[in-house]
Design goal:
4 helices; single chain; two-stranded antiparallel ribbon
């Protein structure tokens, strides 16, 4: 349904090795998380994406049936302006990119 131009996409994906499907799903989920953060920031919300937590504990608490797994967490809301840190430095386009 989401890719009508591709015949039997589900069957094609099922034939992929487990590791390839896992990698594809992980990347797709991470990209969706990035879109969530962009949309939330566009609405004026502060976002605090986090990794490095105990995924197994989070998964047991929020996804006990095992069908879902956490990749990262995102705090959403309005931060206390007095406690927010200033934006970190960014590279300029010229520092980060090269066009040939």
């Amino acid at each position: 349904v989401l890719a009508p131009h591709t015949v039997d996409l589900g069957a094609q994906l099922e034939r992929l090795p487990d590791e390839a499907r896992h990698r594809m799903g992980y990347l797709s989920a991470a990209l969706q998380g990035a879109y969530l953060i962009l949309a939330a920031r566009g609405l004026g919300l502060d976002c605090g994406p986090m990794s490095g937590f105990d995924n197994a504990t989070v998964d047991a608490a929020f996804f006990p049936d095992g069908r879902w797994k956490s990749i990262f967490l995102v705090n959403l809301g309005h931060g206390d302006a007095a406690a927010l840190k200033p934006r970190q430095p960014r590279l300029s386009f010229e520092e980060a990119c090269r066009i040939e």
